[in-house]
Design a protein that fits this description.
Layout lengths: L7 H12 L5 H7 L4 H13 L19 E9 L9 H5 L5 H9 L5 E6 L6 E7 L2 H12 L5 E8 L14
Antiparallel strand pairs: 1-3, 1-4, 2-3
Helix pairs in contact: 2-3
């Protein structure tokens, strides 16, 4: 998909919507000194181009009982691509990475998963109630996945900065 060109007004609209996605079109238009129709056309263009992916309500994890935040590095088993057994032939269209990525989609504790460079293959952001919940997730879900070879976990002690707003240069 070609990269959309953003002018100064587009960037102002995006900054406003990142700060408060519930503003009416009229309020956004007023803040960027446009009439409502051209403002709405710009917002629709940004949505259709995928610049604006979605609108959401951001919840405070602690307020809904998810008081423990962990970052988990995951390393998968390395399998050779040229497996000659029947199971390997059946799974030729799949890989440990594809299987793992598909599994992660079904784990509600994992709110973000990134494929990484370096020693580990994936970085997971995991929100759970407490250490018992984390232990159950690790033992019954993550470590029981057949592709997982190693994990390293770190726990957030204090939130210093946590924003969803992207810098608009």
């Amino acid at each position: 998909m070609p990269k959309i060109v953003l002018d100064k007004t587009d960037r102002k609209i995006l900054a406003i919507l990142q700060a408060d996605g519930r503003l009416s079109n009229q309020d956004v238009a007023d803040r960027v000194s446009l009439s409502p129709s051209p403002c709405l056309r710009r917002i629709k263009r940004l949505e259709e181009a995928g610049v604006i992916r979605q609108y959401v309500a951001l919840l405070d994890p602690a307020q809904i009982g998810l008081g423990l935040l962990a970052y988990v590095n995951v390393r998968l088993e390395k399998h050779s691509e040229g497996s000659s057994n029947a199971a390997g032939a059946r799974r030729a269209t799949s890989s440990p990475h594809a299987d793992f990525a598909l599994s992660v989609e079904h784990w509600p504790e994992v709110v973000a998963c990134y494929a990484m460079t370096g020693e580990m293959d994936y970085l997971l952001r995991v929100h759970v109630e407490d250490m018992d919940h984390f232990s159950r997730f690790m033992m019954q879900t993550l470590l029981s996945h057949p592709a997982v070879a190693d994990v390293k976990s770190s726990f957030a002690l204090q939130r210093i900065k946590d924003t969803t707003a992207l810098p608009l240069m």
